[in-house]
Specification:
Blueprint (H helix, E strand, L loop, with lengths): L25 H16 L1 H9 L6 H15 L7 H15 L2 H13 L4 H14 L2 H31 L5
Helix pairs in contact: 1-2, 1-3, 4-5, 4-6, 5-7, 6-7
């Protein structure tokens, strides 16, 4: 039995460009990119990155917000889950382990399951190499452990804050 294929989004009109429309201002592209960046990476991460910004890194932060997040991540041609899968693979292929950890967390936010991330990493073993996948699995394991610890800490805090009636 074959899996039904969902209809692809209509990419023939201007919407195919996400926030990058012919009449869009640089500020509109930046704002659209910042909105997606915050949705995917979380306010805490983006706020930390912005707080570290200085005259040397300001142009880079502006560029990735406008071009990566505004120009690419707002396009409707791929789901956020698919974009996360592609990004995880690129991080493994190039050995960008800190970025990989960030994008594994983001992939969970974007709706990928841990099992789907495991399958992506297994795929990278074939196409990016076993040593890279080995490091990627270790990185994912650490990220999941941190997420689980944070969830346990939050649950304990919530329990402590419950007042008796």
């Amino acid at each position: 039995m074959s899996t039904p294929v969902s209809a692809a989004p209509d990419l023939s009109g201007p919407a195919r460009n996400g926030v990058v429309q012919p009449d869009a201002t640089s500020q509109e592209i930046y704002d659209g990119g910042m909105a997606v960046r915050r949705e995917v990476l979380g306010d805490e991460h983006v706020d930390k990155a912005n707080a570290k910004k200085d005259s040397f890194t300001e142009d880079f932060q502006d560029m990735i917000t406008r071009i990566a997040w505004g120009g690419i991540w707002t396009r409707p041609g791929l789901s956020r889950q698919m974009r996360s899968a592609v990004t995880i693979t690129a991080m493994v292929a190039h050995g960008h382990w800190e970025e990989l950890a960030m994008h594994i967390r983001s992939a969970i936010t974007n709706g990928l399951s841990r099992d789907e991330i495991k399958e992506i990493l297994l795929q990278t073993a074939i196409y990016c190499g076993v040593p890279s996948a080995n490091t990627a699995f270790k990185t994912a394991q650490q990220v999941f452990q941190q997420m689980d610890n944070a969830a346990t800490d939050n649950a304990a805090t919530d329990t402590e804050n419950i007042e008796e009636v």
